[in-house]
DNA sequence: GTGGTCTAGACCACC
DNA sequence: GTGGTCTAGACCACA
């Protein structure tokens, strides 16, 4: 359960990425109230200021917004969430294709392998 | 040009992985004579003993073999290379699916996205 | 010389405004290297972190940029500076018109007064 | 509706300024009978004594006068009102020019901007 | 209670 | 030296 951070990159950036994923994955739903800054900081075992900085960044991206004295909420803008989700997906697709290319596998074959091999090793096809 | 190693895992393991990729990708071709251990060690900026250990591991996997006084060669066994290649590909497929799942994207959608988004950002579709 | 801050608004915002003005007014010229964060903080008698936050905000606006380990510089984008300058000017114009309106003076008269009264009380007409 | 006062300056001075504006703007017309001190004090949420002090100041300026048992009236002296109005206008003009100068904009440009930008952002040009 | 701000002081990588 | 990050701890307004 211990969240572990990559020492190479700022913690607040990694927090941004983690929470961003929680939002696009639906773990934090559209319009949902987030746990308080202090609570999130406690959960992630970081300083509240660090968490604050991460949340400020997400607010910059409009993925969350603040209700004064009330808490922070996930955006209601479903289209935005979808857009960010696509961006993340694009990244993963690129990573996949790059890694396949590095072992000499073309785009066509990468697609074929995904269809052939997908779902093995406990990764559900559904 | 500087190969960079992950500090978390033994270097020789990482060498194994790199050379394995060079073989399945065809950079080192079937039956080809490899550069000498010392040469490879120099290129990768590692100790020759470390490189030796890596090559021993690959020989164990039968991906390379030694001709007593003559050097080391990539296996002639095309089927084996193909098998390893598939194993690596399987790994990549799993990584891809796992990462997509983490952002809330199902197998079906992961396939669709690969077809839709593949090739953007300078990653050739060919 | 003591910079005084309005207690009602965050200091870092006021720093942003002050430095923004220094840039559009040409006190900090296009492309010029800014004093170091620590130096600016000292001059303004604020904590370096507060100054850092202000500068980060200006970097967000692209009015300044950072050269790693070298310092921060005013943008080279003259058009951007001009745009910001116009925005600030628009604000002043609005303030002027609003204040004139509050004492019952129309836009037409506000313009006329500016031409008639401008330059008195030591405010140069040039 | 809540009048808000600047904590830095005496409230009675701020009342003087507000009522003075009401007079020159025509909200309180030439020769008009003012609401009673108590009424004004209630409206502005200040102590009647404070309001009394403000009105005394305005009487000093001759902007209002008292009819012994009858109440207070706005002056009939249109020229005086006009003069005060010009003084206030002069102040606004100076403020405008000073603020423009602070962002590096000359008198000539300040006039041009007023003509170009005036009326935007919901501030009527009429 | 909530988020927001500020300070002091430390450590880091980079060059 | 430079900027960047992180922590600890404090105080504030709001309601």
Quick one: overall form of chain A? Answer: elongated
- Find the CATH superfamily of the largest domain in chain A: Winged helix-like DNA-binding domain superfamily/Winged helix DNA-binding domain
CATH-defined topology of the largest domain in chain A: Arc Repressor Mutant, subunit A
What's the number of domains of chain A?
2
Helix content of chain A: 55-70%
H and E string of chain A:
HHHEEHH
CATH architecture annotation name of the largest domain in chain A = Orthogonal Bundle
Largest sheet of chain A, in brief, is: 2 strands, antiparallel
Please give the alpha-carbon distance between the first and last residues of chain A: 27 Å
- Alpha plus pi helix count of chain A: 5
Regions with little confidence, pLDDT below 50 for 5+ residues of chain A: none
Quaternary assembly: homotetramer
Strand content of chain A: 5-15%
Mean pLDDT of chain A: 89
Short description:
Chain A has 126 residues and is mostly helical. Chain A is built from five helices and two strands.
């Amino acid at each position: 359960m211990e969240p572990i951070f990559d020492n190479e990159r700022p913690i607040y950036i990694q927090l941004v990425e983690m929470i961003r994923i929680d939002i696009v994955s639906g773990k934090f739903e559209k319009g949902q109230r987030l746990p308080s800054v202090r609570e999130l900081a406690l959960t992630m075992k970081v300083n509240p200021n660090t968490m604050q900085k991460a949340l400020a960044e997400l607010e910059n991206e409009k993925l969350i917004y603040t209700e004064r004295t009330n808490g922070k909420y996930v955006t209601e803008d479903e289209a935005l969430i979808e857009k960010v989700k696509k961006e993340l997906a694009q990244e993963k697709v690129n990573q996949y294709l790059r890694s396949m290319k590095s072992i000499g596998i073309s785009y066509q074959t990468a697609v074929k392998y995904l269809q052939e091999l997908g779902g093995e090793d406990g990764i559900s096809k559904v």
